[in-house]
Amino acid sequence: MSDEPQPKKPRPGWASHKPQAADTPDDARDDTRTDEAAPPRSDESDAESGGKDGTGPGTAGGSRTAGVSAKKAARDERHAALRARRTGWRRLVPTWRMVCGAFLVTALLVVGGFLLGYALVQIPAANALATQQANVYLYADGSVIARDGEVNRENVTLSQISKDAQHAILAAEDRDFYTESAVDPQAMIRGAWNTVTGKGKQSGSTITQQYVKNYYLRQEQTVTRKVKEFFIAIKLDRNQSKDEILEGYLNTSFFGRGAYGIQAAAHAYYDMDASGLDAGRAAYLAALVNAPSQYDVVAHPENRALVENRWNYVLDGMVDEGWLDPAERARLTFPVPKRTTHSTGMSGQRGYIVNIVKQHLTANKIVDEAALDAGGYRITTTLEKDKQDAFVESVNDNLMDRLDKENRKVDTYVRAGGASIEPKTGKVVAMYNGIDYVKQYTPNATRRDFQVGSSFKPFVFAAAVENGSRTQDGRRITPNTRYNGDSERPVQGWAGPRYAPENEDHEDYGDITVSEATDKSVNAVYAQMAVDVGPDKVRETAVGLGLSPDTPDLDGAGPSIALGVANASVLDMTQAYASLANHGKHTPYTLVEKITQNGRDIALPERRTRQAVSREAADTTTSVLKGVVEKGTATAAQTSGRAAAGKTGTAEEDTAAWFAGYTPDLATVVAVMGQDPVTAGHKSLYGAMGLPRVNGGGAPAEIWGQYTRDALAGEPVSSFSLRLQPGAHESQPPAPDSSGGPSSSDDPSAPATDGSDDPGEGDTGSSTPGDDSSGSDTGSGSGDDGGTESEGQDSGGTGTGSPSGGQGGDTGDGGTGTGGEDTGGGATDDSNRDELPGPGGLSGALDGRRWD
């Protein structure tokens, strides 16, 4: 082999660009051919095939290899020719094979992505905002008191939404809702077209998609949220009916003015329920959904024309869909919403009411606190709006408007609390808790930190009658039992430390009846009576009538229990007095008439009425308390114009003044309290309103009188029907150690007759004035199980009946009787005298003085 470099063998497909001469040897020309054009040389062919005799390896394989090479060469040549032809812009246009391939890949990706997304995206739990609702508190007549909660929403069922409201929303947002799928591309295109052509802004999303966004997702505009919304809407459409989705959408949409859901919106704009929306109002609310703030024509009057166009678009859509009669559409005018609706915040009395009702619901295990905080409850209270308003007005007229907080510091201490209950039903119909919840948070009707004073004394007497109690010398306690009423007289029979209470102004009364002692609120008499009855029995009676057993300072008070050292609430005291008014029957008070959650009724606990004390004990107490109003310390309460019974009270150091009273139809307690607005400490009320002192016969009785008159206006005037304890009308001799005046008994040594030692034997009635028009009392009685029940009427100038003014006389064993005629010399004013039984009855008016 030569040492000179040998030429390299050309690569397959290589061809020389130099022309070959015709006489060039074959071997030379072969070196310049392409693979496709050059047949294999014999020696090479032989080598590949293993020899011409076929004995070498791969004879058939060689042929196949040659064929493949030939095809590849032909293909490469075609591609080269095609590239030579596709020059310039033609190179940018894909071939049909490329288009088909791309479409196929895209389709596979879309289908795969859809299946993957449908499998991965699940319907989530509702977001926190969508589930929050307000609790709605209503008066007994259904008007709204307040709404509480961070979100103003009240879910309602579709049946509680008017058809006009449903159709208006559909006309505004998605007219094909009931026939389309959850995600409708046509709706998106239609919405975009309507917006572009000026037919009003319309969402491209279906109602289902909007509901998904409101209820399950958040409002951010992101691709992720849109993708989730797409898949959740599809799944939701398979799991829920169209009605369920529409209901959810109507309850979650935002309408402006802080209102979520159509029920809250109906109240915010028109002060009505969603069930009452007509086509015009419904169309306006439907128009709000797109732009709640801008479309509020009260807040933005400059947008009135734009809003009316949207309103007309909604109504026209209702006509087009057959949901609204064209003639009715033609009659509609734009319903301008109210500038302001009734406040549903916490100001005024509303905040107090909401908190007290909440405590009532949780304390009685009607709704637990966590569920109540979650919201969604519609609570109809027993409060009556007219009575509630009358209470507030009376407090303002008789107390708040008389304060001068700038010039009298003591006037800044003044607080007031009140409550009113129907005796027969136990329903709380009105409460007063303070001037404004946002200024004074403590509810004065339910607080238990002020002494009730002498307003507690009726419980002592009721306990005495109920237990057949006797004095230390063995005399039965009745309205005419005489006690020593001297101030600071030590109580007898008490094993504890010496106790000698003072009377107001240290006044001594000497020998005095229980009725007179009640009229004048004589502390010495009632402290002794508490010992005679037993402080434990007094406590038992007070709790039975309605005071809470947890009342501070009610236990272990000893004789002082009679003076009202207990710190009972106004509401508890009202309940106890209501039991007296209901002839001793106690019905636990209630603040809730009905409660529902999302249209479902919540069961209320059963309230059972029980006989706390006998009718004779309660009615005899009432007969004594009537004298307090007619000629005792509470004559100011006569402004009610009704037969009334009650008792005044004053706490130690005049930190609180009370009047607790009732008519046959209504029991009400009012308290005026002194509290430092900075330190919250109790303060005396001396000098308040420019008066030397504030007592129960002043502002509290005046508030009570005006409120009771207004609260019962238009209702029939009722009289007390009383059944007294046996012998209640009989005078009794004074105590042996009494230093008072002589007894006026006809027979001082005579014991009670007709089985009167047994408090349960026989009924003795007292008359009740039915028409207080002049100056005499007439009474009659008839036997009923050994007793008497009588009704009296003030109608003339002389008295027929007992000298005390109208008692029907002593009876026994079914008999009847008529008392003697009062023929006194006229020095005593009998025009306001109670029909207290027995000779030697109470004197008339007390010369304008008030004792407490």
From TrEMBL:
Membrane-spanning ranges: 95-121
Keyword tags: Carboxypeptidase, Cell shape, Cell wall biogenesis/degradation, Glycosyltransferase, Hydrolase, Membrane, Multifunctional enzyme, Peptidoglycan synthesis, Protease, Transferase, Transmembrane, Transmembrane helix
Presence of keyword Transmembrane helix: yes
Keyword Glycosyltransferase assigned: yes
InterPro entries, per database record: Beta-lactam/transpept-like, Glyco_trans_51, Glycosyltr_51/Transpeptidase, Lysozyme-like_dom_sf, PBP_transglycosylase, PCN-bd_Tpept
GO cellular component: outer membrane-bounded periplasmic space
Catalytic activity: [GlcNAc-(1->4)-Mur2Ac(oyl-L-Ala-gamma-D-Glu-L-Lys-D-Ala-D-Ala)](n)-di-trans,octa-cis-undecaprenyl diphosphate + beta-D-GlcNAc-(1->4)-Mur2Ac(oyl-L-Ala-gamma-D-Glu-L-Lys-D-Ala-D-Ala)-di-trans,octa-cis-undecaprenyl diphosphate = [GlcNAc-(1->4)-Mur2Ac(oyl-L-Ala-gamma-D-Glu-L-Lys-D-Ala-D-Ala)](n+1)-di-trans,octa-cis-undecaprenyl diphosphate + di-trans,octa-cis-undecaprenyl diphosphate + H(+); Preferential cleavage: (Ac)2-L-Lys-D-Ala-|-D-Ala. Also transpeptidation of peptidyl-alanyl moieties that are N-acyl substituents of D-alanine
Ranges in a coiled coil: none
Ranges where the Glycosyl transferase family domain occurs: 144-318
UniProt biased composition (Basic and acidic residues): 26-44
GO biological process, one term: peptidoglycan biosynthetic process
Region feature Disordered, mapped onto this chain: 1-79, 470-504, 725-852
Record-annotated Penicillin-binding protein transpeptidase domain positions: 421-678
One Gene Ontology MF term: serine-type D-Ala-D-Ala carboxypeptidase activity
Signal sequence, start to end: none
Domain of life: Bacteria
Gene3D superfamilies reported for this sequence: Biosynthetic peptidoglycan transglycosylase-like, DD-peptidase/beta-lactamase superfamily
Low complexity bias spans: 737-754, 764-777
Ranges of Gly residues composition bias in the record: 52-61, 794-827
Stated family: In the N-terminal section; belongs to the glycosyltransferase 51 family.
Protein name as annotated: Penicillin-binding protein
